[in-house]
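User: Just a sanity check before I run the rest of the batch. Below are the structure tokens for the first item. I only need the designed sequence back.
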């Protein structure tokens, strides 16, 4: 038996004034067909009282109750990039961002939380420059992928109050600067980074090329080293994770899942969708389970790009879901597929919300006759059709148990 989760990050949304969402407007015949021949419903992937981050939601969908296992976002990413972290250390996600040009730092606006999706090579130069010139004793910078990096605080305390930069798009940053533990240290680091990065040759070249400069760091995602139970010991299947995002790779490392790298996987709408599908098909030859994570809908959600989000869903359906289902069908092996977002990222809000998310679960062994609507066609897989099904799963880990346990 083969098991596959296709995680379409941030895919679900709120309806517009006409009642439409990107999921309802997207042409996605493969998802619709699976939902019509399987089951659909809603799942509460973010536990009550927890923030609807991709860290919490993906932990949940990957089978780990966040109430038990979650210790913060940055430590999961730190695992992925090999940061030597002790249980007494605290790590922070460090974004390279683009701020507006007001002379007073606190009066600047958050123009771009990803610095124009700066390349990993450019970002590495900037992080290494800052690591040499910026942090005081006990603080260490580690380069990651694109705009996503890590600050490690040795033998430190938690208690900083930090805001994700993607939650404050186009807002003045003063009210969202670090508060709580180490607030003065972190604010000084961020202000100094702006002074140091503004005239850096990498940024001068980006400006000349019409790209957003990475003219500041932004700290968030505080946490300690996690202790995840081994996935195989919990669920009895050998699994792998395919993602362009350090967060997901870090969860995989902590859970003892294999990490499959895909050249050309970027974490945005320009990712190699077909390459990810091919990697999933190949990985399932010698693994029981694959968690295939696709970031593109979430990135479009944060950018407020409703048309782009709709297009991302269509690309996932055409280039990922369709080819994988076809390949698994030809293999002759029975399989189950779970398709869902980790959380909703409404384009009108440009941020995550903790709404229950729609899911479809298809089992090749119990392929049912397609359920049809009044017009004789299968109802599309949408937030509304999932809600109308009446099926509600109270947690992401319960959903994974349905996938693997039946």
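Assistant: Here's the designed sequence for the first item:
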């Amino acid at each position: 038996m083969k098991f596959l989760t296709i995680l379409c990050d941030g895919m679900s949304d709120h309806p517009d004034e006409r009642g439409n969402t990107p999921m309802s407007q997207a042409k996605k015949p493969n998802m619709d067909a699976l939902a019509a021949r399987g089951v659909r419903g809603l799942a509460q992937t973010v536990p009550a009282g927890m923030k609807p981050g991709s860290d919490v939601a993906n932990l949940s969908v990957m089978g780990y109750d966040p109430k038990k296992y979650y210790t913060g976002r940055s430590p999961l990413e730190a695992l992925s990039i090999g940061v030597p972290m002790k249980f007494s250390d605290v790590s922070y996600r460090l974004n390279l961002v683009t701020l507006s040009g007001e002379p007073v730092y606190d009066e600047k606006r958050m123009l771009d939380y990803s610095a124009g999706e700066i390349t990993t090579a450019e970002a590495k130069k900037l992080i290494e420059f800052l690591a040499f010139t910026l942090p005081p004793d006990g603080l260490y910078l580690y380069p990651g992928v694109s705009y996503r990096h890590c600050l490690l605080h040795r033998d430190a305390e938690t208690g900083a109050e930090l805001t994700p930069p993607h939650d404050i798009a186009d807002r003045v940053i003063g009210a969202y600067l670090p508060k709580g533990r180490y607030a003065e240290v972190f604010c000084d680091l961020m202000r100094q980074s702006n002074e140091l990065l503004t005239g850096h040759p990498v940024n001068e070249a980006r400006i000349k090329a019409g790209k957003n400069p990475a003219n500041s760091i932004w700290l968030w995602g505080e946490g300690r080293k996690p202790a995840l139970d081994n996935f195989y010991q919990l669920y009895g299947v050998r699994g792998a994770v395919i993602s362009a995002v350090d967060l997901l790779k870090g969860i995989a490392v902590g859970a003892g899942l294999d990490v499959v790298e895909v050249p050309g996987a970027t974490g945005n709408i320009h990712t190699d969708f077909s390459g990810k599908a091919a990697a999933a098909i190949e990985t399932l030859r010698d693994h029981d389970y694959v968690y295939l994570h696709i970031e593109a809908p979430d990135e479009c959600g944060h950018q407020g790009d409703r048309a782009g989000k709709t297009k991302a869903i269509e690309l996932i359906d055409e280039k990922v879901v369709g080819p994988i289902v076809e390949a698994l069908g030809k293999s002759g092996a029975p399989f189950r597929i779970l398709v869902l977002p980790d959380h909703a990222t409404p384009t009108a809000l440009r941020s995550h919300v903790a709404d229950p998310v729609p899911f479809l679960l298809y089992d090749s062994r119990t392929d049912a006759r397609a359920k049809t609507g009044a017009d004789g066609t299968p109802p599309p897989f949408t937030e509304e059709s999932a809600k109308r099904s009446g099926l509600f799963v109270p947690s992401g880990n319960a959903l994974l148990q349905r996938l693997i346990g039946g």
